[in-house]
Amino acid sequence: MFNHRLSAIPQPGIVNGFYPERSPQKREFLHGAVSSCTGLVRSLTVYRSGALRRTLAAIHHHCRQIEKLDDTALAEYAKKLRLQLHQHGLTTDLTRKAFALIRETAGRTINMRHFDTQLIGGWIMVHGRLAEMETGEGKTFTATLAAAAAALAGIPVHIVTVNDYLVTRDAESMGPIYQALGLRVGAVTEKMDPGQRRSAYAGDITYCTNKQLAFDYLRDRLVLGDDHGRLRLQLERLHNKKSRKERLFLQGLCFAIVDEADSVLIDEARTPLIISRNTENPEEEQAYFRAMALAESLRNDIDFTLDHQGRRVHLSDEGSRRIAALSKAIGGIWNGTRQREELVCQALAAQNLYQLDRHYLVQDGKVLIIDENTGRVMADRSWERGLHQLVEIKENCELSGQREHLARLTYQRFFRRYICLAGMTGTAREVQRELWSVYGLVVVKVPTNKPPRRRELARRIFPDQATKWNGVITQIRTMHKQGRPILVGTRSVAASEHLSSMLRGAGLRHQVLNARQDAQEAEIVAQAGGKGAITIATNMAGRGTDIPLEEGVAEIGGLHIIATEGNEARRIDRQLYGRCGRQGDPGSYETILSVDDELLQHYLGPMLLSFLGGLVQQEKPLSQHIGLISMALAQSARERYHLQIRRDLMEMDERVTSLLGFSGRLE
């Protein structure tokens, strides 16, 4: 069902159509043992040590031949190879030659040559697999091999990453390689107008975020409508100057390389993408204010209960009767039981389950959602079903208009439409079965270029937040006296600012990186590896960022990481730990937790929390062990919960697709 051979990818044009993409396919969420075995077999066909040794030997052979050429002769060689690739596609021999050419070009343009491990990573991706490479092994540089090889063969390439900062950084830093090969590189960011977007997508290689790419695809679907047949588009393009082809953004879905693939394909896949437009409805706005007033009159644990894990509100029978009585005189939509109860539940959620500086920020009078996995602001996102407007009322902000949905798409369905999908990440093993079952992506582990020297210090858990933060300050002082740089990871803006206040009180100079400082991210990260530097960061510093060590820092132990709370997935913890000990540098990390951290609070009941807190306070080894096991179980439970959300979303998506199929529509 999944065909990820680059040699089989059609080049957009008259013969193969101007918008190639894979037809929608129905997939079950997990295939169990049979699916896993199939994925393993597929991985072994690429990652056989003997085959890889032969491939590396062939690439080095071609490298030795072309490194003797001067720049003019190398450019001529590139033109001839590009013509061969256009004619014959990415055959094994031509792909090896392309890798050698790209490696030599990189050395001449940006003074970097791909290591053997990076050649392996690129080979895995060019075969439509996911390369799991340790943090710091140069995934951005590795991607140039697969991207440039495909682009030289005339295949449009999308390199997908998680935020605009990485899009701009990677396109600029890797751009000289592509340009020297005669390839055009573009970058799509949030603030671009339609003309700039079309120009960027028209290039051979386009860097973009998953969000911008998927929304632009949805916009294309609105232009194409239900009739997007190959022949019709070609005839329009030949005979009509204002054909739909000229209004499209993409050149189709040919080949995507997804950076931080677990974040994009797993974490982001819990929420569907929706294109909508504002609608003015004064009656709805009035209903939101009434819902907030009604919610304030309800009693917790009597009229309603809170589900913190699912972030939902459950009304009791008493609560339903109370709402009915209070809304009896209002009339209108308040006569309907389902509508009034949903509105009040959303208002209760806004009041009790969504916290300022954890789930959202207020900037310039607007409510901005924070991505809990990355710590970044999602400026153009809004919550559904009135929740966003209710949070705006809670924070005394001007109400944004209600949204009318025009098109909807899930990441699962979108990325399965690529004719060839590949990826890279440092943290995929926990979700490799899901990546194979949903996307047909096999995870292949790539060895490190140098032996890792990252050390884990003993994990500790404290009975409460106050003692935990004091423990964090003590450890920061210890490392700071040694002159080592320290990166402290927090889960929320509020936590990062609380720790910052404590450090100021302790007289320790530091930098803070959270959603409020996203414009200064590059500058703050660049300084985080200096001697004695202290940096507090949310998960913004956990993906795609490289912290260079100042001279002399490696000799005293390298960067030290302190994680102050468990994330909702172990993968995200590992991303933070991976900021240290990169490319064979020394480094260390530790985890300092408390019994009343959010993850445990929502997993254990009040009585168990109280018992565990008392146990941990005894400071006995066994009590520490029990506390840490409890945190690990809470984390596993959260991962299973999010897995279920993705499963439910995908099943609902399949049902919607089937229903739309009967009407002749796809989105």
Provide an overview of this structure.
The protein is of the alpha/beta class and 667 residues long. It folds into 3 domains: 303 residues, 3-Layer(aba) Sandwich (Rossmann fold), CATH 3.40.50; 120 residues, SecA, preprotein cross-linking domain (Pre-protein croslinking domain of SecA), CATH 3.90.1440.10; 142 residues, P-loop containing nucleotide triphosphate hydrolases (Rossmann fold). It is built from 24 helices and 21 strands. Strand 7 and strand 8 form a beta hairpin. Helix 2 packs across helix 4, helix 4 crosses helix 6 and helix 23 runs antiparallel to helix 24. The C terminus is likely disordered.
Feature tags:
Rossmann fold, disordered C terminus, globular, 667 residues, seven-stranded parallel sheet, 21 strands, Pre-protein croslinking domain of SecA, alpha/beta
Task: Explain the layout of strands and helices.
Blueprint: H1 32-46, H2 49-66, H3 71-88, H4 92-109, H5 116-126, E1 130-132, H6 139-152, E2 157-161, H7 164-180, E3 185-187, H8 194-201, E4 205-209, H9 210-224, H10 230-239, E5 255-259, H11 261-267, E6 273-279, H12 282-296, E7 304-307, E8 312-315, H13 317-326, H14 337-352, E9 360-363, E10 366-370, E11 377-378, H15 387-394, E12 402-409, H16 411-415, E13 420-425, H17 432-439, E14 443-445, E15 453-456, E16 460-462, H18 465-481, E17 486-489, H19 493-505, E18 511-513, H20 521-527, E19 534-537, E20 559-563, H21 570-577, E21 586-594, H22 598-603, H23 606-617, H24 621-662
Parallel strand pairs: 1-13, 1-14, 2-4, 2-5, 3-4, 5-13, 15-21, 16-21, 17-19, 17-20, 18-19, 20-21
Antiparallel strand pairs: 6-12, 7-8, 9-10, 10-11
Helix pairs in contact: 2-4, 3-4, 4-6, 4-7, 5-6, 6-7, 12-14, 12-15, 14-15, 23-24
